[in-house]
Amino acid sequence: MPDVAAKSAALPKLEVCQVSKSYRVQGKLLQVLDEINLEIFPREFVCLVGASGCGKSTLLNIVAGLVPPSSGEVRVDGQVVPGPGADRGMVFQSYTLYPWLTVAQNVAFGLQLQNMPKAQQQERVAYYLHTVGLTQFAGAYPKQLSGGMKQRVAIARALATKPEVLLMDEPFGALDAQTKEQMQQFLQDLWQQTHITVLMITHDVEEAIYLSQRVHVMSSRPGRLKQEVPIDLPEQRDLDLKLSPEFLSLKREILHSLRE
């Protein structure tokens, strides 16, 4: 986990600056987000937790450039982002794979849009399929994969374009409990390998603590960041950590904040 001195010396990789979002519903203005300020530093894994309807997904979609803010701005490496870009990779709860493409073709999709030479595409796809443990499924189609395997393909596709920041919108929310824990362990190991900067939203408090270096708790109506909880746990983690007194203490603190 980056210490205070390291943070002060580093520039943020991702900045959310005074971001608010409102929608007009049946003639009335509905404020969803209220002046969100957030900094994420290089190599950090940060989670946002909050109740359903608190604006987590809206905030992530604004960071991804899929939804414009009503006010405020998002910056990557100090540059304002006007919309979607290759500097941000996105993984959704639904697997969003193209069913008519093989696993390898799905992972290569973004590389084709970048007009990368074929030989380089094949090398990049092979590397990331190996990274997510799906080399032997390169020629398979999404319908032949389990839910966890589909999400691994989606993560490989997002990583293949080498984004500066990986954005994850409840990526394991649709999985059963056992597969979900396996994918949490997989993502922890993957982050150890790549140390990519990650912003992930989840409603699962245990998942947020297990994966991240910091957890931000959101309040709702309108969504605000109400508390930041540093996760002072070893960087390398296994699932047994969830049973430790330190982990349970953090879980109590975050649950208490959510209930307030």
Automatic annotation (TrEMBL):
Domain ABC transporter residue range list: 14-247
Membrane topology of the entry: Peripheral membrane protein
InterPro entries per UniProt: AAA+_ATPase, ABC_transporter-like_ATP-bd, ABC_transporter-like_CS, ABC_transporter_ATP-bind, P-loop_NTPase
Keywords from the UniProt entry: ATP-binding, Nucleotide-binding, Transport
UniProt xrefs under PROSITE patterns: ABC_TRANSPORTER_1 (PS00211), ABC_TRANSPORTER_2 (PS50893)
Domain of life of the source: Bacteria
Record-linked Gene3D superfamilies: P-loop containing nucleotide triphosphate hydrolases
GO molecular function: ABC-type quaternary ammonium compound transporting activity; ATP binding; ATP hydrolysis activity
Localization annotation: Cell inner membrane
Major location category of this protein: membrane
E.C. no: 7.6.2.9
A single GO cellular-component term on record: plasma membrane
Entry similarity comment: Belongs to the ABC transporter superfamily. Nitrate/nitrite/cyanate uptake transporter (NitT) (TC 3.A.1.16) family.
Protein name: ABC-type quaternary amine transporter
